[in-house]
Structures are given as C-alpha cells and as structure tokens.
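Final report, closing paragraph on structural work. Over the funding period we assembled a curated collection of sequence-structure pairs, and we close with a single example.
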Amino acid sequence: MTSSTHPFEQEEVMAYLDGELSANRAVSVAAHLRECTECAALAEQMRDVSIQLSNWSVEAAPASLTKNLEAARADHALVKETKRGRFAGWLTGKFPSFKNRWVWGGAGAAAVIVLLFAIGLPTRRREQHAEGLAQLAYTEQSRSAETAPSKSAASEVEAFMAQSRPSPPPVPEPTQPMIARTASVSLIVKDFGPLEATVKAIALRHNGYIASLNSTSPQEAARTLTATLRIPSAQLESVIAELKQFGRVEQESQSGEEVTKEFTDRAARMKNARATEERLLNVLRNRTGQVKDILATEQEIARVRGDIEQMEADQRALQTRVDFASVELSVQEEYKASLQGAPTATGTRLRNAAVEGYRTVVESVIGFGVWALQSLPTVLLWGFVLFVPARWMWKRFRRTAAPQS
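Its predicted structure, as stored:
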C-alpha cells in the first residue's frame, strides 16, 4: 500500500478499525475500502487478528503454581521476620546467616510471576475493551456510510449540479393575438430569365429569406419556378404586391392561424417544469438518502431538463411562425409551342430504338442458352429414369392391342 496508489497509510486503516479517526476521515477511509480490494483485504486481515485476540483467554493456573504461591507467601512472611531480625541485627551489630538463600530465590521468582499477572491482566482487559469499542465504531460508520452519500458521491452530485445550466427567464405572456400568416401566389410571366434573381432580391430587401427554391427548364415546354419565402409578417402585403407585378396572377390566397392559446399553454407547462426541476435540485443539494436515491433524482432531473428543452424549441419555432409569414410562390413561363415538321432528334431516336432492339434479341438468346444449360441435366436425368417404364408400357399396350386387330 503506497501513497501513490492508495491515499491512506496502514496506520490510518488501523486507527479506523480502532475507532480513533474523526467522523469525516472515517467516512473517507470507509469509501476507499469499498472501492479498493487490496486495502479491503488488508483491513480484513487486521480485523481477523483483532477478533482472534479478543477471543483469547487466560488458562487456569496449574495446582503446582498454587502450591508455589502458598509456599512463596509463607517464605515472604519468613523473609519479613528475617528482615526484621536482620534489621534488628544491623541495629545491634549482628547479621543473620544465608543458609536459606534457595528459599529466598524461589520466593522472589514467584513474586515476579505474580507481579507479571497483576500487570498483564488489566492491560489485556483494556485491550479487549478498546477492540470492542473499535468494532462498535466500525459498525456505526458502516451504517452511516450506507445511509449518507460518500465523498465521491458528493463530488459527483456537485459536478452534476454544476453541469445543470440554469433555466432561462420565463417567456412573457402575449398581450395581443398571435397570428401565423401564410400566403400563396401563382403567376404567369413572359420574361422568365431574371425571375429567380429578382425573387431573391425581394426577400433580402424585406429582411426575409428563402426557405426553398426549385426551378425547372424542360425542353420544348414552359419553364417553372416554385419557392417558399419567409417574410416578416409586417411586410407581407408589400412583398405580395411586388411579386404580383411580375406577370398575370392566376391564383392568390392568404390565411392566418391564431396560436395564442398554444403559446400560452406551452409557457405554463414550461413554468411548471422549471419549478419541478428547481425542487429536484434542492433535494439533490440536501444530499439526504442513499446513493441509489440520489441517482434516481439525477435521472429525473435529466428527464425534466429534456422536456423543458423540447418545449423551448417548440416555443421558438412557434414564435418564428408568428414573426415570419410564409409565402408559397409558383411561377410559370408563358410559352407558345412552335409547329415543326419533325423533331430534330428523330434520327437519334430511331438509332436508339435499333440499338435497344438488338440488345433485346441478344439478351433473349443468352437467356435461352442459360436456361437450357441449367435445365438440361435435369431433363436428361428424368428422361433416363422414365424411358424404361414408358417403353415397357408401350410394348405391353401393343401386345394387348395386336389380337384384337
């Protein structure tokens, strides 16, 4: 476990298992252990060692040790008497003998053993108590990690909210009727040459544009032009007047569709959708609940945002229909056909017909040859199979018919 690949040292993991870390640091370590398998395995090993130590118990002292302790107690009393006698001897100038030094050595060893047990047992109890507290802290931290989003989840939430662009200000309600106007004009013109350039110039001069334009020039037939012009609604009448000057008007029509109700209804739906989005964003800011709840909230926000964007696009398209009227223009050249003795391309047509006839004959011959090659093996096989029974039936028929004749 290195700092380059793991943000936490082994000591921090051990402190986390012992419950010695702060709440924020403990949540971060718990999130890392859920993501890193290596650190999780190391923490599991440490936890197993702690569990084994907590299950360790001190065995009962053997009977020989009890006897030694009783003997040590008696020797201790004897030592006290000896010390008092020795002290008295020192005071009086008399010193006791050292004949019982082996007894004193055994008593000293027993006293050391008792002292070790007296020091070790409380220490072990404190360790078991600390391990129990660490296990309890780990359980509480696990529960809190399940009910509260981790640090990485919180960062993802913040990133998602940063990407959520604020909604534009609401569109004001219309104060007058909104009319989507359309017009249609059909003309017959004599001079068809400069017509296309003139139509484009009219659209540009009135701050409009050409949505579509199609021009045809068939041979020995009248030329035609069809176009769709998008003109500001306020200038529709002047544009139609200019177009009618090109030639004779065959058909003219104008219509208007009121879209005020549609515009208002969509604006109300957009307002409600933005309010729903704001409530969901507030829920996401609080970050309460489990991670799956946060993900579900993000998905719902994305869905609501998609609906809002779709309604905004429809609203813009509707506003464009109101601001720009649509003019369908159809122009046909005034054409007078000339009487000719024969078409100029008669020889070419005859030559093409002869070539097509030759190609048809060749294709039919090749097709018959291909069919014959494909069917000949099958025909020969069935002819060979049916020849013997057909010949036998023919001979039998002739034998039966011969006596009658």
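Residues 179-333 form one domain. The two ends are 117 Å apart (CA to CA). We thank the funder for supporting this effort.
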